[in-house]
Each structure stands twice: as structure tokens, then as C-alpha cells.
Design brief:
This protein is mainly alpha-helical. It has 2 domains: about 260 residues, Orthogonal Bundle (MetI-like fold); about 50 residues, no CATH class. Helix content is about 75%, strand content about 0%. It has a two-stranded antiparallel ribbon. Strand 1 and strand 2 form a beta hairpin. Helix 10 packs antiparallel against helix 11. The longest helix is centred in the middle third of the chain and has 37 residues. The relative contact order is 0.14. It is a multi-pass membrane protein.
Length: about 350
């Protein structure tokens, strides 16, 4: 009996190498396709960064313009294929090029200056919304038919409001009328990024309003999804058996029902974590927040190819890494997944 139990345990604990190998091949191809599209898509747009720069600075000589095009990888003497190969050579060396809209600074330096603001704000807001929505949805699903069901249409209604309108409404109420919170920006005027309490408290104060609107706008989706999954799980036989054995309701709720109902939420949460890097463009525009989303919009308007490609690269990698993490976690939490795909 001990030998049989050991075999069963080893079989359950076996690492799903075949499943992970298939996913690795899939994501490798996806990465190549995304980076290839990342190269060609900006070049399909009308105009380029150099032309826009020359329109603003007409005293630039033709020789300087040609040198600038060569520096940005837009040399007309090279074919599109040669530019594509140069693009991959630079990527493999970790060189994302230079940004013409930021004073010819390295793209990696420009992105690294905006990335912490987006991750800090959108990341914290996403985690809060997921945690509150998932726990709340599980409890509401468990207490189905009670007055707690009123939270579902309320939070869903908030999710249907256009984000820019919700942000402007929050600014009007809490910043203009009540004067409780600052209108926008990431920190107060006159402060510089340091590890001082004045700067940190200013960052927190400026982040409360945009973070709260993100939570309110996304809370309904998490709560509704978890509540619906709980209603499905509660009809399963193992829940009925657990309750018939006299297990405490709290244990049945969190150990059996919520643990299985949360599995589909993991994939959605991973996607949300991946898209955190892209930021929320509308939010950053409404609150004048110096994040990656606003930077991407500005780079698109300036036709800054290098910066656009750098931001797209970071977003692509973050989404792929988040999906890989979700697939691995899902495979270990739910053995049916790897058994189906193996």
C-alpha cells in the first residue's frame, strides 16, 4: 500500500515538462511575431520622426538630416530588410535606440524614468481591485439571494461609466469642490524624487485619486466573474459532500468553493498584470500622470519610432511573462489543464 501511495504521489507531483515545452514554443513564436509587427507597424504610418523634427527646425542642413536618419535607423540607403536585420541586431545587444522626442536620450533611459510611476500606480490599483473583487465576489456568491447581491449591479454600473468621465467627476468633487486631494501630476511642485517623507507622502497623496478611480472602474468585473464562478462551483457534488460531513461553512467556502472558483480569475489577473506596464492612457492623460501610457501617446504623435518600439517591446514582454506565469500556475493548480494539452 505504501508503494502504491508513493507512486500516486510522485505521479501527481511530476513536473509537466511536455505541457511547459509546448507553451514555451508557442510563446517563442508569439514573441517573434510581436517584435516583427513592432518593427513594421510604425513604418506603415505616414511621415517619420525626422520629418516632424525638420518641420519644427527648418535651419537643419540636409547632411545633418541624413545623419539623423541614419542614427535613428531610417537611412533611405538601406532596404527595409536591412533595417529589419539591424533592428534585431540592436535588440539582441539590448540597444533600443534613441528617442528624438526626448533630446536624443537612450530609449531605455526614457522608459525607465516613466515605468516606475505606471507600475506603482496601476499595479497597486490592479492588485487592490483584484483582491477586493475576488474576495467580495466569493462571499456574495456564497450568500446568494441575500442583500449583498445589490453590490453586483452597483459595481457593474461603475464599470460601464467611461473612464475619462469618472476621472473628471472625481477631480470635480474631491479636488475642485472639496479641495481634499490634488488635481493631477505625480507629486507636488517644487519637490524632486528623493527618499524623503515629504516626497513619498506627496506621491501617495497625488496617487489616491487616480488609483481609486482605477479600482472603481475595474472592481465590478472581478466581483461579477468570481460571483458567477461561485454559483457554478456551489452546485458541484464535492461541495454537497463537504457540507454533509458537517464541515464548518468557513472552511467549505474558502478551502473548497473559492479555491476552485478562483482558477479562471488567475488567467485574467495575469493578463491584467501584463498590461500594467502599458498603463492606462486615459487615466494618465486625465490626471497628467507621467507614466508609460502617456509617453506612448506622445511618441505616437511625434512619430518617434524608437520610443514607440521600445514601449511596445516592454509591453509585449510583460504580457508574455504574465501569461507564462499564469499557465504554469494554472497547470500546477488544476491538473486537468496539463492532462488535456499533454
Amino acid at each position: 500500500m505504501g508503494t502504491t501511495a508513493t507512486k500516486i504521489h510522485n505521479k501527481r507531483a511530476r513536473i509537466p515538462w511536455r505541457f511547459l515545452g509546448k507553451r514555451a514554443l508557442f510563446y517563442t513564436f508569439t514573441l517573434w511575431a510581436a517584435l516583427t509587427i513592432n518593427f513594421f507597424l510604425p513604418r506603415m504610418m505616414k511621415g517619420d520622426a525626422v520629418s516632424a523634427y525638420l518641420a519644427r527646425n527648418q535651419n537643419i542642413s540636409q547632411e545633418a538630416a541624413d545623419a539623423l536618419r541614419a542614427l535613428l535607423g531610417l537611412d533611405t540607403d538601406k532596404t527595409l530588410w536591412q533595417q529589419y536585420m539591424d533592428y534585431w541586431a540592436l535588440l539582441l545587444r539590448g540597444d533600443l535606440g534613441i528617442s528624438i522626442s526626448h533630446g536624443l536620450r537612450p530609449v531605455i533611459e526614457v522608459i525607465s524614468g516613466a515605468l516606475p510611476w505606471t507600475i506603482g500606480l496601476v499595479g497597486v490599483a490592479t492588485v487592490i481591485a483584484f483582491t477586493v473583487g475576488t474576495l467580495g465576489g466569493a462571499f456574495i456568491g456564497w450568500r446568494r439571494g441575500s442583500r449583498l447581491d445589490l453590490f453586483i449591479p452597483l459595481t457593474t454600473f461603475l464599470s460601464t461609466i467611461p473612464y475619462f468621465w469618472l476621472g473628471l467627476l472625481a477631480i470635480t468633487v474631491f479636488s475642485v469642490n472639496l479641495r481634499l486631494l490634488p488635481i493631477g501630476k505625480a507629486f507636488g511642485v517644487g519637490l524632486s524624487p528623493t527618499w524623503s517623507w515629504d516626497f513619498i507622502s506627496s506621491v501617495i497623496e497625488h496617487g489616491v485619486l487616480p488609483a481609486s478611480t482605477i479600482v472603481l472602474a475595474s472592481l465590478g468585473g472581478w466581483m461579477l466573474g468570481m460571483r458567477n464562478m461561485m454559483l457554478t462551483v456551489l452546485d458541484e457534488d464535492y461541495i454537497t459532500v463537504a457540507q454533509a460531513k458537517g464541515m464548518p461553512n468557513r472552511r467549505v467556502l474558502w478551502r473548497y468553493a473559492a479555491r476552485n472558483a478562483v482558477l479562471p480569475q488567475i488567467q485574467s489577473f495575469a493578463l491584467s498584470l501584463g498590461f500594467i506596464v502599458g498603463g492606462t492612457i486615459v487615466m494618465e492623460m486625465v490626471f497628467s500622470y507621467p507614466g508609460v501610457g502617456k509617453m506612448l501617446l506622445d511618441a505616437t504623435n511625434a512619430k518617434d519610432y524608437a520610443l514607440m518600439q521600445g514601449v511596445f517591446l516592454i509591453i509585449t514582454l510583460s504580457v508574455l511573462v504574465a501569461n507564462i506565469a499564469a499557465d504554469v500556475a494554472y497547470a500546477f493548480l488544476d491538473p486537468r489543464t496539463r492532462q488535456t494539452e499533454s
